[in-house]
Amino acid sequence: MAKNKREKPGVTKFDDHEVIVVPNRLKTKALRRAARNEPDPLVDAERALEELSAQFGGWMDDECLALEEARQSAHRKGMTDATRQALFHAAHDIKGHGTTFGFPMAADVADSLCRVIENSADPARIPLAVIDQCVDAVRAIIREHGQEDAEETAAELVKELRMLTDELLGIDAKPGEPDSVSPPLAPV
């Protein structure tokens, strides 16, 4: 651990790579804050998030509206670069916000839609029926959130749409193996 602010990062060398070890001064700062009886910023952030949580449903409704508009545009104009991009961004926003706003299953379905749009060899050939199924599932999950059996139904939708999109992308996911078509981040 760093003794002072001027301490430089360390480097651990291995045969085929090096790892930079950055000094971590967080524990010292946290202890100083506690000693001065200052409020915990994490507790403050959680409290603020709790106060905002009543608005999450409305925000997700707005995200659904944007996704629906992007879908309608894709139906009217076809999968052009502009409509594909609008559809991807709307789905990506739901993917990013869904879990934070309490709709993790909607985020999972939006992830499937993003994967299809992003990884299809020819986005113009993505079946509109697949887009419709994903958009309808996201909207239903958000609309029915909190209803009896909604989570079970949502989980089944997530599973089925993941299998459908994997099939469309030609991914043969096996249990325990990653189902991503992305290249590895670290050298193999």
Structure description:
The chain has about 190 residues and is mainly alpha-helical. The chain has a domain at about 55-170: Four Helix Bundle (Hemerythrin (Met), subunit A) (Up-down Bundle). Helices cover about 60% and strands about 5% of the residues. It has seven helices and two strands. It has helices at about 25-35, 40-50, 55-75, 80-100, 105-120, 130-145, 150-170, and strands at about 10-15, 20. A two-stranded antiparallel sheet has the order 1-2. β1 and β2 (about 20) form a beta hairpin. It is extended, with a radius of gyration of 22 Å. The two termini are about 30 Å apart.
In brief, what are we looking at here?
By secondary structure, this protein is mainly alpha-helical. 61% of the residues lie in helices and 4% in strands.
Helicity level: 55-70%
Describe the biggest sheet?
A: 2 strands, antiparallel
Order of helices and strands: EEHHHHHHH
- CATH class group of the domain at 56-169: Mainly Alpha
pLDDT < 50 stretches: 178-188
Structural class: mainly alpha
Q: Secondary structure elements and their pairing?
A:
Blueprint lengths: L9 E4 L4 E4 L4 H10 L5 H12 L3 H22 L3 H18 L5 H16 L8 H16 L6 H20 L19
Antiparallel strand pairs: 1-2
Helix pairs in contact: 3-4, 3-6, 4-5, 5-6, 5-7, 6-7
Features:
188 residues, mainly alpha, Four Helix Bundle (Hemerythrin (Met), subunit A), 7 helices, disordered C terminus
